Automatic annotation (TrEMBL):
Keywords: DNA-binding, Phosphoprotein, Transcription, Transcription regulation. The keyword Transcription applies. The keyword DNA-binding applies. InterPro entries: CheY-like_superfamily, NreC/VraR/RcsB-like_REC, Sig_transdc_resp-reg_C-effctor, Sig_transdc_resp-reg_receiver, Tscrpt_reg_LuxR_C, WalR-like. Residues 3-121 form the Response regulatory domain. This is Response regulator transcription factor. Pfam families: GerE (PF00196), Response_reg (PF00072). Residues 154-219 form the HTH luxR-type domain. CDD domains: LuxR_C_like, REC_NarL-like. The modification 4-aspartylphosphate is found at D56. It comes from Streptomyces erythrochromogenes.
Length: 233
């Protein structure tokens, strides 16, 4: 059973997330706490220790990014899924550095919410296809020269990886969990975990979602589509 916390200042959004989880065709997720602001979310995460905290990126007072940073510092075993809306691209890149490993559009397909929660609970990064597409577009928005410079820098960083690490990074950029990558590459899951740790260190990033952005910039991960991806069993 995956235990989650929901934090959003809008009661209807919290009710919507709760309803999606309750009516999922593949059960196994339960809501253990709800919060209306980031400070309360941190306190409840520290008390209940859920596997996943689902946070609104913008809340009055302590927002989702500040809450994600504090959760990462005090309860690092809890993964963070950030709920966002269109027009908040600049917040997404900031939140990557604050410990969030999942991003979902509030108006997205309910299937994405379930897939995102399961992926983050399993230790994977999950970017909603629409969010991933907007992140890549945002990174390219600084102009052709700046975008080319970032692509070149990303390729140089990826070039320092071993061939196997580049394979793992490609799948990581697609949002696969360690177990899924292990099955694709016919490796032990512990070996994949060691590769991921090495990749993060070599790329100089703190989490899988940030590594996924590098993978997209370097062209070693597929371009995201708008179709939600089903998790493998």
């Amino acid at each position: 059973m995956i235990r989650i916390l929901i934090a959003d200042d809008e009661p209807m959004v919290r009710a919507g997330v709760r309803a999606i989880v309750a009516t999922a065709t593949d059960p196994g997720i339960t809501v253990v706490a709800e919060a209306s602001d980031g400070r309360q979310a941190v306190e409840l995460v520290q008390r209940h220790r859920p596997q996943v905290a689902v946070l609104d990126i913008r809340m009055p007072g302590t927002g989702g990014m500040e809450a994600a940073a504090e959760i990462r510092r005090t309860v690092p075993e809890t993964g963070v899924v950030m709920l966002t809306t269109f027009g908040e691209d600049e917040y997404i890149l900031r939140a990557l550095g604050e410990g969030a490993t999942g991003f979902l559009i509030k108006s997205g397909d309910p299937e994405e919410l379930i897939a995102g929660i399961r992926a983050v609970a399993d230790g994977a990064a999950y970017l909603s296809p629409k969010v991933a597409a907007r992140v890549v577009a945002h990174l390219a928005a600084g102009g052709a020269g700046a975008a080319a410079g970032r692509r070149s820098a990303a390729r140089a960083r990826v070039g320092a990886l071993t061939p196997r690490e580049r394979d793992v990074l490609g799948f990581l950029g697609s949002g696969l969990s360690n177990g899924q990558i292990a099955r694709r590459l016919r490796l032990a899951e512990g070996t994949v975990k060691a590769h991921v740790s090495s990749i993060l260190a070599r790329l100089g990033v703190d989490n899988r979602a940030a590594a996924a952005v590098v993978a997209h910039e370097a062209g070693v991960a597929p371009v995201p589509s708008d179709r939600p991806r089903r998790e493998e069993g």
